[in-house]
Protein: non-specific serine/threonine protein kinase
Organism: Cinara cedri
Amino acid sequence: MIASFVFPESSAYRRHLKPARAHISRNRSQTTADSSIASESTVYLSEPTMQTQSPSTSAAAAAAADDVETTRSVVAQLDGSDQRSANDKMATRVHKRKVDDFIFGKVVGEGSFSTVYLAKDKHTGRQYAIKAYEKLHILKERKSDDVRREKDVMNILTNSGSSLFVRLSCTFQDRGRLFFVMSYAKNGDMLSFLNSMDSFDITCTQFYSGEILLALEYLHNLNIQHRDLKPENILLDDNMHIKLTDFGCSKINNLESEMETLNISNPNENNNGKERANSFVGTAQYISPEIFYEIPTSFSSDLWAFGCIVYQMITGYPPFRCRTDYLIFRKIMNLDYSFPDEFHEDAKDLIEKLLVLEPNKRLGTEDAKRYTSIRAHSFYKGLNFDTLLKTKAPLSCPDNNNYYQVPDNLEPGLGPKQLTRLLVCDELYGHSSKNTNTSLPSTSDAAEGQSTTSCEK
C-alpha cells in the first residue's frame, strides 16, 4: 500500500489569503482512524459549480471505509453575487471530489511529471482540464515541494479573481496520483495559432503581448515569478483572451528570497552538502542568461522570456534556436540572435531593451510603478492598457461546432480500462482541443524546433 501523500498548508499561502479565507468546517459524521488525512491541505473553491449536496451519514461512513480522501469537506468561498446570509454561506458544504466523479475524454497535454486530461464532471456536465501527477514519480524525483508550490500559486491566483490565469477549482488524490482540476481553455495554446498562421501581424502582437504584460504585472505584484513563460503556457479562452498556465516552475518571492531558491541538487553531484546557488528552470529557448552565471532569478527573468515571445510573435520562431539545448544556451550567453530584414523598428527597439544580459538593466526593472516604461514604449502607442481586457481580441474564435466534447457514455474514472482507451486515442489522433468528430480527438501540429527543458530544482 502506498502511503498517503499529503501537503501541509504553506506559510506563503496563509500570508497571501488570510483576509479572504473561507471558514473551514468538518463533517463530524465523517470520521476516520487514519490520522494522516488531518494534515492534508484544504482546497478553497472559487467556483460554486463544484457544489453538491453532502452525503448522508451512512453513505459517508461507507465511503470513509473505502477511501480516506472522501472524509474531508470544506466550506465554499462564494462569490459576491450570492445574496444569502453569512451563516448560510458558512454552512454550505462542498463534497470532496474523487476520480470517479469525472469522465476522462482525452489527453490534451503532457509534461515531464504530469499528464493533462480533458474531463467532464458527471454531476454538472462541466468540462475541466485535469492535471494528474504520479505520486511515486514525484517522490522519486523529489518534486513534492514543487507540486505544493504550484498548488499554492494557483490558489493565490484563483482567489485573486483575475481573469488572466487558469483557475484551480479543486484538488484531490487517489492511492497513486494527485489531481489538479482546472478551468479548461478550449481554444488551446498560443503556439498552435502561431504555427498555423506562421506569425502575428503587428496589431495582433501588440494586443497579445500587452495582455501578457498585464499578466506579468499582476503576477509580480503578488511576488510570484512564473519562470517558464512561453507560448505553450499561454492559453486562449472562449473570447480569445489569454490565460497563463503551468506554474510548476514558479517561485513565491516572499517565501524564497531573491538570494536563494528552493533547489534539490543532483544526488550524484558532490557539493559538500551545499545546494547550488541557483536552480535550473524553464524551457531552453526562453531561459534567461543569469541562470548560467549563478545569478539568482528574479522578475527580470520573466521579462527576458517576454522579449523572446514578442520576437516569436512577429517572426514565427524564437530568437535563440539551434539543434541542441547546449548550442541554444551558448547563443543565449553570447546574445547571438538577429532580426530579419524589414523587422518592425519599434518592436526591434523593445526587444533589444528586454534581451539584455544584465538582469537589472532590462526595460522595466527600475520602474517605480511596475512596467510603466514598457507600457509607454513607442511599440504600444495607441494601445489602451486600461481597457485591453474588455477589447475584442484580434484573433477570431474557431467554429464552435469543431470543439471536442467529452461523450456522456464513457465510463467515469481513470482505471486501467480508461487509461487504455485514452492511450489508444492519443497514439492514433494526438493532442488537440478542436475536432469535428465528437468522439475522438484530431491530430494537432507539432511545434517545429521547440526544445523543452523541464524544471530541475
Q: What stands out?
A: The longest helix spans residues 202-221.
